[in-house]
What we know:
By secondary structure, the protein is α/β, with parallel strands linked by helices. Helix content is 24%, strand content 26%. It has one domain (2-218): Spore Coat Polysaccharide Biosynthesis Protein SpsA, Chain A (Alpha-Beta Complex). The protein contains six helices and 13 strands. The strands form three sheets. Strands 1, 4, 5, 6, 8, 9, 10, 11 and 12 form a nine-stranded mixed sheet that branches.
Amino acid sequence: MILAAGRGERLRPLTDQIPKPLIEVGGQALIDRHLQALSRAGVNKVVINISWLGEQIRDHVGDGSRWNLEIAYSPEPAGALETAGGIRRALPLLDSNCFLVISGDVLTDYDFRTLINDRPGGLAHLVMVDNPAHHAGGDFSLTERGLLQAKGDKRLTYAGIGLFRSEMFADLDPDVAMPLRPLLEQAINTGQLSGEHYPGSWMDIGSPQRLAAARQQTG
Length: 219
């Protein structure tokens, strides 16, 4: 699943006219990069949630055939349903009880086959990266056993890439907005949230400054 329903407030006025996943970096839309990478990893179906300017995403991506993918869309109401709410709404479209979720506004060379071929036993497994300057405090710490903790000295940032099990969202109302963080914290409390540290290329395209840096980096 690619999360593509957000408004992109911090990238306005650019996102007044174009949804964030269609912003181009290196001459290619962010969502196109994800779809190419997913296809290379052997994925055959992708669900995309849409809200703000969602028809632009639908028109651009189409049925996914140019990437040898089957695309399904999960429309959300104005204002969207936040991350956990959006995943809950899309559950009927996801054919597996274990699925990959990717934020549509990240730029990375992470190989998605790593997650697809090594499914964890808990409720979710997150890709973690070194803390960027705009999020210096990080999100969670990673133990030697590969579990994530809310506290700890070596904190890392959630990359917006993870493998999730449907039971993590099954009790949510599909019509109510819900952030992901509380569910992650619940999974931590029961020892069911694992993670891995990815030291490779990753950027969150969440501000004009970070977009400019990404474009400079990719030429």
